[in-house]
Structure formats: structure tokens, C-alpha cells
Design brief:
The protein has about 120 residues and is α/β, with parallel strands linked by helices. It has one domain: Glutaredoxin. The chain is about 40% helix and about 25% strand. The chain has a five-stranded mixed beta sheet with strand order 1-3-2-4-5.
Amino acid sequence: MATVTLTAENFDEVAQGDGIVMVDFWADWCGPCKRFAPVYERSAGKHDDIVFAKVDTDAEPELAQRFGIRSIPTLMAIRDGMIVFAEPGAVPESVLENVIEQVRGLDMEDVRRRAEA
């Protein structure tokens, strides 16, 4: 599956749905972002049930500000409308796959319960 470009206009619509949305915050001038891009694209090709999205922080500064993005690339995982992971830095493919499996394995009832407490 190809990656989806997220903007201020479509972010909430995509992120608030059921399932998993992986988000890569990046910029064209960012060397680590360019090195991480093929890793992210390969994972997108392996997981048809996950939305892989990208936010260009230069084109969408309000989204970067909204989520407190201070370093790029930043990888964010959203499951069933809740941010469950956000970490700056380019990660190797094995780490990205591990994050995906951990997000899949979450007990979302427990996550919601803890968030409300």
C-alpha cells in the first residue's frame, strides 16, 4: 500500500478511525528522513491492514506544532484514534517492525482505562 500524505485538513479524519495509523513526520531537507523513507515504504508494502502516512513538517507546520514535533524524523503510531507511540529518530527496519507488532498486540481497553485514570 502506498503512503498517504496527511495535512491539517485530513489528519483527524485519517487518524480517528479504527485500526492502526503509522505517521512519519519528515522534511525534504532532512538527511535522516531521506534514509528512513525506504525503510518506511518497505514496511508499508508488508502491512496492507495499516495506514502508513507522512506529514511534511515544512508544508504542515501547524501539525508539527500540534504534536510537539521538535526533531525529525519522528515516528508516531495511532491505534483506534489514540496516540500509543511517538519517538524521534530514524529507526532500522527491525525496530519499526517491532513497534508495529507491539502496537498490534496492545489491549486497547486497558490503554483507554489507563488514559482515563
